């Protein structure tokens, strides 16, 4: 039997060499929150930072997976290696509902230059974004030049993940009225690139005009003098392009490639990439620390008689929730 | 000058007597995270648990405020006192964008039986849901029989707030395609009541059929035998009604009142209200504890040289984020 430390360093080396099976194993370790997974990320971290990480967000059903499939095809034709990370936060009772999407990526399953992985939500206690960010680092370390991260949904965990991408793409389709309202109200942040997929629809151009209206308002509020978001802001001197695509037949996807490249050139030239990554890494450290504190607390409280008693008092309206929380935090730390 | 403790107990008494100015002051204390605010909630907490708390969620622009205004009118006509809490998570550069919504509630501004308050997002560090939940308790303690909580948006903070309501209403309008997709994919949880507002639209009935389709699928997955969500589940034996309204002229609002009352009767009869509240209070204690741990960590790290050095190492790819987080957590606690 190989000693664990030795096995780890072998796995790390194979990962850095781009071995697909090592990559798959490594992501599983991270997903299962195994100490070896974290150890591995630690070992390969110095080799990260090279991949162009593009995050895709938007409501379910707009065709994000199909779009990523079409994009992957073009990137492969240009000789680049691709990693795709699909974050699926669907609730337990619809698990598998999104399988259809993933099948659309299947034409790439046999291509060694494409690595596709989906990660499922691991319950309300969080941990998904933590694991997804580590998985993105592993894809980067394994030499994937393009890393596409796809999230379905709208929760904080998905926003956290997408925020760590170098370029953020919002994918909509004609009929995405709710998302446009959310952009308009400032509830959803302005992305770097907007795609209107399924653009073979009579209402597409109306939608483009609506989005242009929202963007021009956001730009007015983002004059560099005010510097509301500083140089790392997502609007600033970058003019957010709107790209019309029909991912299912490839229409518009070459233009999307061009816009993604332009955005990368822009953030490199302006120094925004480094600033954005520095800010994101700082947030990641804090997020991991917070998630661990919460997990530690949950573990301490599992089956804890004092906690049960505190909760009972809260339910009986004898003790308010904040006082109960304070009592928990004031307990001596577990040995 | 009155001693603080004395002032507090006076404020608590005035609050319990239903004094509006005391209520306004109390919510401000909680919103500003002042210790007196927390102390006050502690004092009045034994008098809470009486209000019927209804949470309204849904994309911006569907008319939630108008609907709550119309609902408030009917509740007032029935002699009930009402509190409205509007949670506005709009980003800093669109602050005030939702002011128009609030004006629609203005016909109630002079009515002593209606108390309206909006709370704004206080940045990424969280704290909003914590403060909003305390504010809801204060409204309850002040004798508001109906507490309507409205959130705009889709973030985790808003979901946390709405989850604490006794009855959850999802408000949509014709054109809310993204939300229906999110329901279908299981990304958005099934609420207790669905309202289609602005129902004077030719596509309303198509939308009702679509939603019925989603609900029947969700019900299939929720057979009591499987008990995926247990008795506290949002579907279970309750058949989620779809109510068509035109809030601006009151159409359909009496039916909504009836459905809300039916839901309350249902959860009381089945014991679900107590179960739901017990689960929510437990989550609230944990959420407050976690938020405080995070805040404590952020405060400790503000201007901390060791933290800065750790982050620099992470940015230079010499130390991975998880190891930096672990190093932070292993530091001796601040005195």
Structural summary, described in words:
The structure is a homodimer of 335-residue chains. Chain A is α/β, with parallel strands linked by helices and 335 residues long. Chain A has a domain at 49-270: P-loop containing nucleotide triphosphate hydrolases (Rossmann fold, 3-Layer(aba) Sandwich), CATH 3.40.50.300. The first copy, chain A, is 50% helix and 12% strand. Chain A has helices spanning 4-16, 20-31, 35-44, 64-77, 99-103, 128-141, 156-163, 177-184, 204-220, 253-269, 272-301, 305-315, 321-330; strands spanning 52-57, 82-88, 114-120, 146-151, 167-172, 193-196, 242-244. In chain A, strands 3-2-4-1-5-6-7 form a seven-stranded parallel beta sheet, with helices on both faces. In chain A, helix 1 (4-16) crosses helix 2 (20-31). Chain A is globular and about 60 Å long. The interface between A and B is large, with 82 and 82 residues.
Short account of what is shown:
The structure is a homodimer of 335-residue chains. Chain A is an alpha/beta fold.
């Amino acid at each position: 039997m190989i000693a664990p430390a030795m096995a780890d360093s072998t796995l790390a080396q194979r990962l850095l060499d781009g071995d697909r099976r090592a990559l798959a194993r490594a992501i599983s370790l991270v997903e299962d929150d195994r100490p070896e997974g974290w150890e591995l990320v630690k070992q390969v971290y110095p080799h990260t930072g090279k991949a162009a990480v593009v995050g895709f967000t938007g409501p379910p059903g707009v065709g994000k997976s199909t779009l990523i499939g079409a994009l992957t095809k073009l990137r492969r034709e240009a000789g680049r290696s691709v990693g795709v990370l699909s974050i699926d936060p669907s609730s337990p009772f619809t698990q598998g509902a999104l399988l259809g999407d993933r099948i659309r990526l299947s034409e790439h399953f046999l291509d060694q230059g494409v690595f596709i992985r989906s990660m499922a939500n691991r319950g309300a206690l969080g941990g998904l974004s933590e694991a997804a960010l580590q998985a993105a680092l592993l894809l980067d370390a394994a030499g994937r030049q393009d890393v596409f991260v796809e999230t379905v949904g709208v929760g904080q965990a998905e926003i956290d993940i997408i925020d760590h991408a170098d370029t953020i793409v919002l994918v909509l389709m004609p009929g995405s009225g709710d998302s446009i309202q959310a952009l308009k109200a400032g509830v959803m942040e302005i992305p770097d690139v907007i795609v209107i997929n399924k653009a073979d629809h009579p209402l597409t151009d109306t939608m483009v005009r609506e989005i242009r209206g929202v963007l021009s308002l956001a730009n007015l509020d983002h004059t560099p003098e005010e510097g509301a978001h500083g140089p790392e802001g997502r609007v600033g001197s970058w003019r957010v392009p709107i790209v019309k695509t029909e991912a299912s037949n490839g229409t518009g996807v070459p233009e999307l490639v061009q816009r993604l490249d332009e955005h990368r050139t822009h953030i490199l030239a302006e120094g925004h990439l480094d600033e954005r990554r520095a800010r994101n890494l700082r947030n990641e450290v804090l997020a991991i620390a917070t998630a661990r504190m919460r997990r530690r607390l949950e573990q301490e409280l599992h089956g804890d008689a004092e906690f049960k008693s505190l909760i009972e008092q809260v339910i009986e309206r004898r003790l308010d929730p904040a006082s109960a929380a304070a009592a928990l935090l004031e307990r001596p730390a577990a040995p």
